[in-house]
Amino acid sequence: MKGTREYFSIPNLMGYFRIALLPVFLLLYYRADEPPFYIAALLVLAVSFLTDFLDGKIARKFNMVTDFGKILDPVADKLTQGGIALALTFQYPLTVRLLAFFLLKELYMAVMGLVLMKKSRKITGALWYGKACTCILDVGILLLLFVPNLSGLVSNAIIYLLMTAIAFTWAMYLVYHMKVLKSGEKIPEKEKGKKKTLLIAVMLLLAVLCFVISAILPYRRQPEVSREYREAFQAESFYGEGISSDRAVVIEDNGDALRERIRLISQAQERIILSTYEMRSDTSGMQIMAALRAAALRGVQVELLLDGFAFWTQVEGNPYFYALETTDNVEIIVYNKANVLTPWKGMSRMHEKYIIADDRIYLAGGRNTFDFFLGDQEGHKNYDRDVLVYNTGGADSSVYDLIAHFEGIIGQNCCSLWTHGKLLENSASVKRAAAELDRLYLQMQEENPRQFESINYTDVTFPVNHISLVSNPGGLYPKEPWVFWSLCQLIKYAGAETIIHTPYIICNDYMYTCLTEICRKNEKVVVMTNASSTNGNYFGAVDYALNKEKILNTGLKILEYSGNYSYHGKSILIGDRLSAVGSFNMDIKSAYQNTELMLVIDSREVNEQLKDIFLSYQREACPAVLSASETEELLSEDVPWGTRVLRRIIMQLDPWLRFLM
Q: Which SS3 state, helix, strand or coil, does residue 185 take?
């Protein structure tokens, strides 16, 4: 009778009931395409949680605590948590890893529970770290389950936090079980004491400090341009004699930029290369992914190069990117994948943006692949530009230089092919995402068929004498400032009026010196940048306000743009022939840390087109003047309080960290 009472006590019956509710919840949640099913699933889960809350209280109040109940209660907890994690795989592919890790830990706990019972060891309920882990898992899983539209960064952070909590708890139980088996009795949990708590806090603080220092220190060094590069550089080689096989045109409108990308992808026959710093699964990003997947399904080789930090924040854990990567003929390559174990590599970024279709046509410029830069949809926009280059069929086309540049980048040791396990590939969320991308592509063809039509690029482009590619050295860590130095040399060589458009101006002493030399050589060098009050980059806005006098002392004629949106264009007009368009910002990060790419185009027609575009923006810009209230304007009461607080913090950090920005 004692055994019957132990196994079928009221608290244990409630545990059985919680386990029985789990398949009911899963069935309802998987069928939750309509609100009634979703609400029913939530109600079942609420009943399960209420039962969990009551069974322990009943057991203690009525003296129904049993050794079997001590095992059954956490088993029911873990089965419920695992079932919810299984449901989450329909939305977040990374929860497959969480589920696998969770199951391994619970398998260990079950085996150890049986071992302790067999050896007649005393069994305790959940220890403090087990309870803490359960609490963290419950909160994290509920956030993932019931908070819609979490960003990839937030959902990934929650999932990795839950995995860390499981790992910590597993390690603590492993130590505890070893002590129990060795001593033959239950090891009581003791109060840790203030000294031990303080020691742990100090160790964590030192770990964070070491992480930050190791991430920053390597980039304080800012190398000069080597003599070999200086001697090999020839400014006259950027000019061509006669007409080349390339033709080009500037793409300024964000809507046109998206449509041209779709057209290029849809008409490619052999190979598509897309290099982008950041890509998101928003409206424009989804359309690009749908077009890339459709191209791969018809046999086109698709190669997507992404920066490692943006990959971690936007791609990893996102079912749409998994759906794209698992498509035949698709490779996703990651540049310097973010890794907390190697923080000293973290500041080296791949900042280039271009797309190549076969060896026939390409777009290169400063646009990232998401809604701020592409498409006509409503919401915030950044003004930016691309150059479309069309190869009419000659062997001297710059498209071959760009392909060689891409292959050089992906051949570096810091680049790796994105791979993942079959569990993620076959998860329900990835399959759903693939089907959604296929439906989206059909919808795009129906709603906007013109972007899939062939056009005669000769009719919409201008003749070009020559196109040169200027890029920074490859590899990680601080780089020689090839792009910045080369552009300065071209400006000095031309000795003509120059207009520079850049979102930010963050310079070190060497860059100030080079800009001063340019202004002494040229009669007029105009720079348009965002005004501090409207600059979307917080560091750029603060640094410009703090260093405005130094910038004006170089002799540059500064115009401050204050239009409706943030200006993100990175282009230079040099005289009446050369136009430079690409990814290079006039800042220390672009000069020394990033891979950057600029197209330098020798074409009077393209130069004239870009000049008209420049003037259209400059009508909304005013000459920069020094003001005693420059920084005060950044902190005025008209600015949202959160922005004011952030700007004030940056003002204190800027003198120490500006070399990273």
A: coil
> Distance between CA atoms of 473 and 73, rounded to whole angstroms?
59
Measured in residues, the chain has a length of 661
What digits encode the pLDDT tens for the residues 35-65? Answer: 566 677 778 777 777 776 666 666 666 566 6
Q: Which of 465, 490, 457, 520 is nearest to 584 (CA)?
A: 490
User: Which residues, at least 6 apart from 588, have a Cβ–Cβ distance to it below 8 Å?
Assistant: 222, 506, 507, 508, 511, 658, 659, 660, 661
* 186 touches 119 (CB < 8 A): no
Q: How far apart are CA 266 and CA 260, in angstroms?
A: 10
Average pLDDT over residues 131-136: 78
Backbone angles phi, psi at 452, to 5 degrees: -100, -5
pTM (two decimals): 0.82
Mean per-residue pLDDT, 384-404: 96
Nearest Cα residue to 561 out of 595, 516, 530, 518: 530
The set of residues, in sequence order, having a beta carbon less than 8 Å from that of 58 and lying 6+ positions away, is: 10, 11, 14, 64
Element (H, E) at 368: none
Q: Given pLDDT bands bounded at 50, 70 and 90, which one contains residue 191?
A: very low
Amino acid at 87: A
Name which of 130, 145, 43, 41 is nearest 92 in CA terms.
Answer: 145
